[in-house]
# Entry
Amino acid sequence: MHMSSQEIRQAFLDFFKEKQHHIFPSAPMVLKNDPTLMFTNAGMNQFKDYFLGSRKATDPRVTDSQKCLRVTGKHNDLEEVGHDTYHHTMFEMLGNWSFGDYFKKEAIGWAWEFLTERMKLDTDRVYVTVFEGDPKDGVERDQEAFDHWKEFLPPYRILDGSKKDNFWEMGETGPCGPCSEIHLDLRDEADRKKIPGADLVNRDHPLVIEIWNLVFIQFNRKVSGELENLPEKHVDTGMGFERLCMAKQQKKSNYDTDVFQPIIGEIAKLSGTRYGSDPSSDVAMRVVADHLRAIAFSIADGQLPSNNKAGYVIRRILRRAVRYGYTYLEQQEPFIYSLVPALLDTMGGAFPELVAQQDLIQRVIKEEEQSFLSTLETGMGLLDRLVEKAKAEKSQTIHGREVFILYDTFGFPLDLTELILAEQGMKVNREEFQAEMDQQKNRSRKAAETESGDWTVLMADDTEEFVGYDWLSTEVKITRYRKVVSKKKELYHLVFNLTPFYAESGGQVGDRGIIENEKEKVEIIDTRKENELIIHVAKKLPEDPASAFKAKVNLDRRTRTANNHTATHLMHYALREVLGAHVEQKGSLVEPDYFRFDFSHFQKVSDEELRKVEHMVNRMIRLNSPIEEHRTVPKSKAEKMGALALFGEKYGDAVRVIKFGESVELCGGTHVAATGQIGIFRIFRESSIAAGIRRIEAFTGEVAERYIDEHLEIVKQIAGNFENQKDLVKAVSSVLDEHSSLAKRVGKFQKNMLGIIAKNLQDQMQIIGDITLAVSRVELDDPGLLRDLAFQVRSRYPRICLVLGAEIEGKAHLAIMLADVAIKNYDLNASTLIREVSKEIQGGGGGQPFFATAGGKNPQGIDAALAKANKIIKETIG
# Structure
């Protein structure tokens, strides 16, 4: 029976619901509180705290379909995407979990039941692997898993797997355990008769694929590498949704399923290229279809393309898609954004955030496409010059360093560079390129390198309660600690049994303060979240970590931060009132001294609109509305209360609602008791950070007062220069108009003056072979005029080699302009030449081969510099 992808996804969730599993919604693909990951790359990411023991699971059995992205770190499938039929950047992982409940028997039995009875897959095509054991770790073969599989499969289809394939680890340390993979042989009967499927398992065959991995988490790996048994055993399974669809729909490629075909069909229509007609265009269509999903889901989760961290990863993915469309589908104009409706048709039902964010997704993608297409054109021009240079040197190889600059500065992909060069019979020095790439990676790695020791556990504690909404000081005990070395600095991470310190999250910075007792005082310099664990960062470890401490939050810093956080809520409300309900928060940073707020809006916010927002927020402050806090409200009830939720944020079944007057939001941050505490609110900047995303930066309280005072003082000082003027603005405008008029007259005079100087240079010109040479000291009062004069002379005399010198305000200035014929026939270079002669003026400079400038502190050396340039040019031309 044929099943659509939507039906397959639902069948999986329904099956495990029947097995008493709670269906969890997919967590955001973009992670915010995990220092080890930027993106969710597996279904288990949102449950890490349960495995680590830092949070107790409320449901012992869970199932979901998690959106994942694998483009960084060890799970990096980017380069394979499009070239094969089963790797993806963004993919869905179907999973079921047990937290200390069932184990191998049930996990294996239910996996078999779902695949063979619900999906009706051919049992004769199933192979499984079990861990073969590892003497070094003291772990024996997973006989338990083997015995359970033997109930369903003959032994020859139960294969031993290596530690690489069949022992799962969260990282270098932490929870781990053996796993059992389920593989499907989807080849035609003729191929299956030639080579047994068992010989192709884990051999990267496109039709003998791993479909489901059952992980049995039973160990913890310490920093020393030693394994210890976990107090509770867990099950973590993950199945590739797209691969399951391929198997169920009897296709030979994930891209042939109804997950991708509507998008590929739209690409084919837009490009006028039939899918299946050419291997190169087929790869391009697969790349674009895959990357569209990754980009759209990232934007919907709040991660916009940028030049930093996660944003840069998304920008790289989008640029890779643009490049494939440009090269193989002849798409020289933005087109990927127009594929979004086709994506919504296939996935909008399961992921409503795509539908809600469609307009923003399309606008951001289109702007990014336009930007990179112009970069591609710039890169082509730079590459043409590199080719000309190599040909002049009679070389067929482009230096890797120059290609790396193209890649690093302009985002010009190496494979595209190689493709263009191959068409001209040239190649890149890949060793040089890789050396540059490795250097950059090493610099980045060293900058971000952090070494964490094992946790030293002082006392057992299930949950680290946060009490900071009600208390700013409380008695605490340290439950565990570890030493961390970051950027060569030694720090300590402390975990308490409960804490008044707010950990950085939701855009709000972490608290600072102290812990103390009668013997010592330790400063807490930051508070962070690692998944759901609240970590207090200290420069030193208490002398007696096991003793009791009084934890005290820095009251002034917390108060000013709370003022700013509440102000973001009031401003969010005011923006929606002034600009419209389309305004949605897209990010924020809340610090003690200022805050910034990013939101969706498709044009610049006018000065008048900003003033309206300011006035509305300040009115809300003066109303002194008290906080209405509801800490554990069912999410459905919170929505009925009108609470605004943010896309890309992970919410539980119970949420915290914060209300100030008409402003109602879901929020975990700290806030004022009443709005009057904020004092005053002032916007100081409005800007654009991406297509359809605006940013407002603002002050509150004492900082806003200082800002206003500083500006009033500036106005006062300006007014002091116009004592008898009633209308200050009119007086300043009049002076500016007069200045503009005078500047135009001066510019006209300077232009005439340059014309006269250029004419006088005729008398000093010498004809040397096919070159006209002029070397002269001139009288000018602006270094920029030296450049203007050089270009004016060049426009009149195309074969001119011109060397100019001038003393301006006690400094020496030089300019050299060379004719194209001088560069081509005599290998002269203005930049090289000026670096040599500027030594005479105790200065330096540079520029391009045809024009360069220099400055120096010794004007007495100008004549010597001119003479030296004159000599070098004459000797070179001969």
